[in-house]
Amino acid sequence: MHFIKLSQNLPRIVQIYTTRMKTLLYKDQKILMTNTKIGYRKALMKNEIMSIKILIPDQYFIDEVKSDEDLDIIIQTMEFTKPEERQHYKGILISILNIMPYSLIRDKNSGFPVAFEYVDACGYMRHQFVQPNHRRQGLGKAVEQDICKKCINIDITPYKWVGLFNSSVYEATMRSGFWTLWEDNGEPVKLRTMKQTTANMPKP
């Protein structure tokens, strides 16, 4: 992550930060570039992916979002969501979960959501999260497999972005055997995200 100062021709927007991300596609899909359009082509591995058995410990089960409390837990674990933005984002998240695939795993004893991930309105998988006390049990892998199956069922190509700074997640993703890196001319396709801020605003 690094900072770029914008031109004074852009008033009130003082600086942006860009995060370079790697874009990965589930291996049963191919992505083709044609001018400015993106095309998707299904490959023969689709049936193999759909036949994967999702394995999780007996104390957990895959469920749905059922309450405001579930929504609050998901939103509170979002890294870049400020407390004052959460109520506004709640309505957006409800709309997303009503129309897009998502996955949620609960603890049988407490009913608490311990792992989740959803597909954004733009179509990419985001916010994979496992509660700290429930990690290293395969729950992250399970929600990812579950959501990929749901995507393929409705003809959505599963894809996600992994931050270049998050090397351990990237390496684990590539070791899984189910993802392929989207490349252009032999180089990884990188996404840059931008955020408006008033920090260190220069004097007029």
TrEMBL record:
The keyword Transferase applies. Coiled coil: none annotated. One of its GO terms (cellular component) is mitochondrion. It is an enzyme of class 2 (transferase). It comes from the Eukaryota. The keyword rRNA-binding does not apply. InterPro entries: Acyl_CoA_acyltransferase, Glycine_N-acyltransferase. One of its GO terms (molecular function) is glycine N-acyltransferase activity. Its EC number is 2.3.1.-. Gene3D superfamilies: 3.40.630.30. Keywords: Acyltransferase, Transferase. Belongs to the glycine N-acyltransferase family. This is Glycine N-acyltransferase-like protein.
